[in-house]
């Protein structure tokens, strides 16, 4: 048991779940928040963290991380990615089920859970498979997965056998009140596309993925959500039209939420020009109009969650001709810096950004994390909002250095991360 007592002093505490944005001290005992603002009776700090001039907030919850262990440890291990998460102020990683083997049995999740606990850098929670081996045919044993600790189910971006299987899967998930994480994409419209279908793809001679590949699938999944009354979360949206449909469905009372990967709020299909493999992502970067609608949706709350969609790769995975490279970005260490750039650019205010990284994902999946009430786990991120630094991929802690943001200048850097009251990251400066 963690028996340390920590006093975080003088920071600006932003805790959107509790409506707090003020200078308040935090007192931690035995890994839990013992008090906020007022020192608890009998409290004696064994350690004091001076947070003067810094922002203190709940630890970030990253909804939808592709951990590579088990099965692809050459791309990243649970420990390497959890340590990278701590460096980025992330205290809870939500693992997608597409490990090897797939998280479709309690045994696979138990293996991941034990390894994550042994590492101790961050909390790892699991999304279980919607279908066996993610093959889209037979439903996974969702009740057993939930009992083992899985908090949601998903088929990731793997195709479902047909719409009837999807309907039955959503109905089955509803019996356990398990959220279904939907990566809505029509595989036939996507075909062998590798970037957004448009003028840039035509000029480069690359097969495109039309916006309709997402919007058609979102329309289908919204209809099934309404029909089954399931809890649906739309993951990594990329098109403005999909946002409009989700906004309308919410007004109609559908039980749903949505997220966007942080890189979709910055880069466009034009960034692929020159065949830049670090910009090969799925879903692809879209147009400026799409990006602007996504930004507006994050600001309005139609998108409640910002995630990293972290997908680390070894260097060779990005060295083939563009269509053959592996899609994905190593995003744990740029999730908060890019989110703070939205504040710097006047897109969002700071409390809203922190809400989308903490309370938003907690609400979407019914988690107790993402807030700093007394008695809650002391999962805390402290960052200096004024420190200016430049991203050097060689300095990243993740095993994956695949990022299109190399050389970008950021304002705001994590100085301390506390997970269950233990300091898991402390900057040298």
Plain-language structure description:
This protein is 28% helix and 23% strand. It is α/β, with parallel strands linked by helices and 429 residues long. It has a single domain, classed as Metal-dependent hydrolases (TIM Barrel). Helix 9 links the parallel strand 16 and strand 17. It is globular and about 65 Å long.
- Compute the number of helices: 12
Q: What is the average of the pLDDT values?
A: 97
CATH structural fold name: TIM Barrel
Main beta sheet: 8 strands, parallel
Structural class by secondary-structure content: alpha/beta
Shape: globular
CATH class: Alpha Beta
Question: How many structurally independent domains?
Answer: 1
Q: From the 3D coordinates, which CATH architecture would you assign?
A: Alpha-Beta Barrel
Superfamily (CATH H level) name = Metal-dependent hydrolases
The largest sheet has its strands arranged as: 8-9-10-11-12-15-16-17
Percentage of residues assigned to helices: 25-40%
Residue runs with pLDDT of under 50 for 5 or more positions: none
In short:
The protein has 429 residues and is of the alpha/beta class. Helix content is 28%, strand content 23%.
Keywords:
EC 3.5.2.3; single chain; alpha/beta; TIM Barrel; hydrolase; eight-stranded parallel beta sheet; 429 residues; six-stranded mixed beta sheet; 28% helix; Dihydroorotase; zinc
Give a topology summary.
Layout: E1 5-9, E2 12-15, E3 20-23, E4 26-29, E5 32-36, E6 47-50, E7 55-58, E8 60-65, H1 78-87, E9 90-95, H2 106-119, E10 123-129, H3 142-148, E11 152-154, H4 163-175, E12 180-182, H5 187-190, E13 195-196, H6 199-204, E14 208-209, H7 212-228, E15 232-234, H8 240-251, E16 256-261, H9 288-300, E17 305-307, H10 335-344, H11 350-357, H12 359-365, E18 380-390, E19 409-419, E20 422-426
Parallel strand pairs: 1-6, 2-7, 8-9, 9-10, 10-11, 11-12, 12-15, 13-14, 15-16, 16-17
Antiparallel strand pairs: 1-4, 2-3, 4-5, 7-18, 18-19, 19-20
């Amino acid at each position: 048991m963690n028996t340390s007592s920590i006093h975080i002093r003088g920071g600006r505490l932003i805790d959107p779940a509790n409506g707090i944005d003020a200078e308040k001290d935090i007192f931690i005992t035995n890994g839990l928040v013992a008090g906020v603002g007022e020192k608890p009776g009998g409290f004696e700090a064994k350690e004091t963290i001076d947070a003067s001039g810094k922002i203190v907030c709940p630890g970030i919850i990253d909804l939808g991380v592709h951990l590579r262990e088990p099965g692809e440890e050459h791309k990243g291990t649970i420990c390497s990615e959890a340590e990278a998460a701590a460096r980025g102020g992330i205290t809870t990683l939500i693992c997608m089920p597409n490990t090897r083997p797939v998280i479709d049995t309690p045994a696979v999740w138990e293996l991941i859970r034990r390894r994550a606990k042994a590492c101790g850098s961050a909390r790892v929670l699991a999304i279980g498979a919607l279908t066996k081996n993610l093959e889209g045919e037979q439903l996974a044993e969702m009740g057993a997965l939930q009992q083992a600790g899985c908090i949601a189910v998903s088929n990731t971006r793997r195709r479902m056998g047909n719409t009837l299987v999807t309907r039955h899967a959503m109905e089955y998930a509803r019996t356990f009140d398990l959220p279904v994480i939907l990566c809505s994409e029509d595989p036939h419209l996507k075909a062998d596309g590798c970037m957004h279908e448009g003028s840039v793809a035509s000029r480069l001679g690359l097969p495109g993925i039309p916006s309709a590949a997402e919007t058609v699938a979102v329309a289908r999944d919204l209809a099934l959500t309404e029909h089954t009354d399931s809890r649906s979360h739309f993951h990594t949206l990329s098109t403005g039209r999909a946002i409009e449909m989700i906004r309308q469905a919410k007004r109609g009372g559908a039980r749903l939420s949505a997220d966007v990967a942080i890189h979709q709020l910055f880069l466009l299909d034009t960034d692929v020009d020159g065949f830049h493999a670090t910009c090969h992502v799925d879903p692809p970067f879209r147009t400026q109009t799409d990006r602007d609608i996504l930004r507006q949706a994050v600001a309005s709350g139609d998108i409640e969650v910002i995630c990293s969609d972290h997908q680390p790769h070894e260097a060779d995975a990005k060295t083939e001709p563009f269509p053959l490279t592996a899609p994905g970005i190593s995003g744990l260490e740029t999730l908060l810096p890019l989110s703070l750039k939205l504040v710097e650019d006047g897109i969002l205010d700071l409390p809203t950004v922190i809400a989308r990284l903490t309370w938003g994902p907690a609400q979407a999946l019914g988690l107790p994390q993402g807030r700093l009430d007394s008695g809650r786990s002391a999962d805390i991120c402290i960052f200096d909002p004024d420190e200016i630094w430049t991203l050097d991929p060689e300095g990243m802690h993740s095993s994956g250095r695949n990022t299109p943001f190399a050389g970008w200048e950021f304002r705001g850097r994590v100085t301390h991360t506390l997970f269950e009251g233990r300091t898991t990251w402390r900057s040298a400066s």
